[in-house]
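Suppose you are handed only two things: the residues of a chain and a line of SMILES describing flavin-adenine dinucleotide. What would the bound structure be? This form records exactly that question and the answer produced for it, so the two can be stored side by side and reused later without any lookup.

QUESTION INPUTS
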Amino acid sequence: MDTGGTAVVIGASMGGLLAARALSETFARVVLIDRDVLPAEASERRGVPQSRQLHVLLARGRQELDDLFPGLSGELSGAGAPLIDLHDDVHWFNDGYLMQRAPSSLIAIGISRPRLEHAVRARVAALPRVELHASCEVTGLTTTPDRSRVTGLRVRPRGSEGPDERIEADLVVDAGGRGSRTPVWLEELGYPRPAEENVRIDVHYLTRIYQAEPQFFGGLSGVLVNPVPGTPRGAVAGVQENGQVAVALTGMGRDEPPADDEELARFAETLAAPQVAEVIRTGTPITEPARMRYPASTRRHYEQLARFPEGYLVFGDALCSFNPVYGQGMTVAAMEAQLLRRLLAGGAARRPKLAETFHRAASRIIDGPWAIAVGTDLRFPEVNGRRTLKVRFVNAYVHRLHRAATSDPALGSAFLRVLNLIDPPTALLAPRTLLRVLLGGRGATVSTPATAGIVASG
Ligand SMILES: Cc1cc2nc3c(=O)[nH]c(=O)nc-3n(C[C@H](O)[C@H](O)[C@H](O)COP(=O)(O)OP(=O)(O)OC[C@H]3O[C@@H](n4cnc5c(N)ncnc54)[C@H](O)[C@@H]3O)c2cc1C
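ANSWER OUTPUT
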């Protein structure tokens, strides 16, 4: 359905690109604006500092991207990014328990963030109605005199000393990331700011790329160790395009992964999985270690605002930025893109209150992944927040599930389907699953660093 008109998107990272894809079906012209120089090659860039960190595209995210860009994951795997069965090709150490592997339909793709963004950008740039304006900073919004409707943007080309230019738009989408200026702009226009939830987690990331070797991960594609209370350290490592392996280590608070080779290997040796330290000790590094600190998960409740201008909505990390260890951000952005696509196809762009409808429905999309991320983080005494009875019950239950999943692949599958945002968190409480959790897990052992090698290869 073509409504004509112009839509403008602030930010051409994954969120903005996916929003533009959705908008391109109904708007005659879609303009994507980013302050960065957008590299011709797949490379990191300043506006997306996390692009140097390992990114996992969840199975749901891969499905949604393939729906938005038919054949994308096939194209990427043909170009050397491996498809990975998340249940069968990965060693999962959850709370120290090694999950029993089994073939599944949970297929992820081993790909670096710059390579994925580059491929998606190429697909979006090839859409006939989309224009990409790089090196262009959005400095504010323009509105009707009564400020009830956003009519466009003020922009300043990078390095320009002159006055701001204006871009007219029928709809503006803010996909400017967690540093989004929308709360400030709303206030300047006389609207209330959204309520903001911040869950302080203080996570430190360190990612380094190595040359892949056939013996890494015992011949599988990767390994994951989740942080546990008392040892809030974790790791994800896996194969990627160009015969590379990415290793990401995380710590919380003052427990920062060290950049020195020997100390980094020792840090990894404190984890339940021996496979991570093996890559660090024996692998050939291709990059220097890249660090990043992530202070807090942040959710902005635009859906609760009684007043919000027409012709404007907020998308992606600007709405909600999750603790990255759960790998949810890109997948949630893809789910929001599908939501926007559905609303626009139903004629929502021609009706008032598009933002209200979108923010409400996006909030329901966010509820599940937010509950997973924040609920799990509340296991750590370092994290502030209300530990309701429900949160404590779910965390104790999921711990038992991990124990039983050492010998019951149906439980591993149930857990991974929720983690990959295929099923809602409530699916873990289905009667059959509950029974297996309660009855299973006898004799399961925790893989401590000393025994991990034996357990993992057994
Ligand atoms: C350490 C780390 C690891 C992560 N790992 C994963 C993972 O494993 N899996 C996953 O799915 N997600 C992960 N994420 C989250 C993921 O990176 C984001 O969810 C994803 O990039 C979508 O964000 P976005 O496009 O909404 O915002 P961003 O990626 O932050 O992009 C915002 C864009 O807007 C531009 N911009 C901002 N303001 C302006 C302005 N005023 N004018 C012009 N341009 C502007 C910026 O240049 C940038 O390009 C991780 C995040 C971090 C921090």
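WHAT STANDS OUT: The longest strand covers residues 195-211. The first helix runs from residue 14 to 23.
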